[in-house]
């Protein structure tokens, strides 16, 4: 083992001759810095010692007095006095002893350590970990090896000390012993107690906690809440880190008015498939006098075979009763709806062809005040698609063949259960150029129905064959322009779309999967007014529109967009859902505008305007202001003439900024230990101008105190026309000790309801050991 003595006084070093910059040899490329030194390299590393006075024998023993330092690899030891025995690789240090090993530091009075093996003890030690900033005091630290140590009569906290003499950590874990494993990045404490603001709040006989931001099994922060339907709620989740690609969250909850609920979520991720399963069970609900349960499972899988790719997708959702969605609003998102699908699809794809077999069955959760008609079940659906690539002469062709068995899961005097089969083919020849495009397209749609029972007209079968022709065209003009002192590239994009489909009487055909499409900029340039395959509108119309954009010439970002479009109908449309012909020659006018003048500000609006009445039929106007992290305000006005008129406002903002204080450096941007914490207000208000009342309300406060985060959220969500569910939720997280799961309330409520909400402690990368290099 090499031993280098570096004991020259600083003045002597300054007087040493050195070549000037002009005479210096050329620089050589340095090897890449390594976070972890290879095990086979460690025995070859030299030991460097320095100090005011060094005595001893090279390669045998060294004694350093005054500003003693020993350095080997990623380990540095400093002390007033240090004795190092080379054959045993043993260091004895006394007086102001300091160790830095890979960024983790220890300070104490007496040290005995085998340097390479990192085995020994440290008396009266204070420690600090690089990855989490956690620190504490101890009577003694036993180093078992380079990765494991035991801290006796110890404290542990992530609260950072400030300059005040009266400083005390907001929370601290006091334990008889703490076992630390930096390889597994896990700590375990025995005979411990958790203190908050100097008050013992939780005795803990045994607990494990993370030493980094990596996932780790253990208890998650509990949620305490008050619910108008459930009374006092307490939920305690437990996170199980099964493997890097599998985990589970187990939940236990006590609902004062209902009983005990248990559940859990299991997630898995493989190279060919992934999915999750979420299950909830309440053995006895005292309010409903029955057992309550719900499950939601999703799976997506794709494997390669010699004959093509085979996929299996599952989306299964079921609950015990019609009131489940109303009573368990904190359940999985798919189970909060009144229409629950159970969908299974087996698919295949190879080259230009694909096929799938699908079954879909709905569960409709009925409400007496507002009943719903469930969609038809697909039992099953067979679909084949052919889309050849690289056809000659620039042609595009596709063909779809589908046969589906539809069954109504409802009580009707004469349900239109039956089989529908159709073939749809389309051929187009796009002509594309930088300054414009022309796309003629021809479609043929042939459909055959076979019904279990005769329709109203007495038919047990029906067929329909319809061609459709469309011609889409547009131009793009560009010019340099200036607007409000800024240079832009302005475009002018006129567009014309014509479509023609002849009339066929479709009044008696059932509506298996068909509804009217929304009237917007995405659907106004399409051939059919309906989604699905049971109605083909007899269109003979021309859609004309124009859009202008102001683009940043350097980045291409869109700063301003203005658009207008309208349909001109040449003949009546007789195929409608209510069998009432549409005779208006001019449709409503669509007006759209979008402004993103700066990254902080955003504005977007769409207005459906009726020229005859001079009033808007539907309007959506929204604005966003997001000047930085954890600062966002979103406001949207929505009008559906004669139906609804609402204002929706959501926000997340530091309270200090609201009353003129300085809010910079909050959240992850803040410098730890330099202030007393940050308050944030967060929420969303949905107000109905028509009914003059709040429909949905989410209002909360968050407090980030460096080492802990507290939040309280009031949630009132409309569950039906006449009823609403109100909850008050509380949660506290001890940063670096009790990890937070994004699927637990109230954070789940904020993420789901507040647009652009940011978690105060998004996970960041672990610091390098060189960021705390001695």
TrEMBL record:
Q: Where is the LptD C-terminal domain?
A: 291-659
Where does the UniProt annotation locate this protein? Cell outer membrane
GO biological process: any one? lipopolysaccharide transport
Where is this protein chiefly located?
Answer: membrane
For this record, an example GO cellular component is:
transporter complex
**Entries under InterPro entries matching the protein:** LipoPS_assembly_LptD (IPR020889), LptD (IPR050218), LptD_C (IPR007543)
Q: Which family does it belong to?
A: Belongs to the LptD family.
Its subunit composition reads: Component of the lipopolysaccharide transport and assembly complex. Interacts with LptE and LptA.
Functionally, this protein is described as follows: Together with LptE, is involved in the assembly of lipopolysaccharide (LPS) at the surface of the outer membrane.
Specify the protein name. LPS-assembly protein LptD
